[in-house]
Amino acid sequence: MIRKAIIQDIEKVEKGYIELLLHEQEHGAYTVWQMSVYPTRETAQKALDDETLYVMEENGEIYASMIVNQVQPEEYRQIQWKTSVADNEVLVIHLLCVRPSKAGCGVGKRMVQFVIDEAERMNCRSVRLDTGSQNTPAVALYTKLGFELAGTSSMSIGGLISHHHHLFFERKV
Question: Which domains does the chain have, with CATH numbers?
Fold first, then answer.
């Protein structure tokens, strides 16, 4: 089940971030996230406070988390998006984190499809997101789900990790 996070989820979301970062340290990284820098428990707590943190829970476990809102980072203004829409007609996926122990089972697909369905329900015309160009699993997922590459640019992560090459994707709703 995908739902808005509650306070009791914060520790499990943080453990998901740590699991991913430890997995990347051992097996190679697809993200440029950094342990104790971004993402952190504070990142999740802020999103919870803003009511924008979502989780996928199965059998009492958090399989994945993400932040979903209508906030487009400043770098989004540089992109020539496929759809010209007002800010309130866009839903943005931030910080999608699937625990490595749950990867390969369609968790990411279900999370992204949830946002597409939510965008439709909210009468949004577009779903946007960004990912590092090195994140080949994410790029493959987004492309498979009908997202189109709208542009590339340098971008910092969470305002904490220095600029690096990013891909900006959009899907019309």
Answer: 2-172 (3.40.630.30)
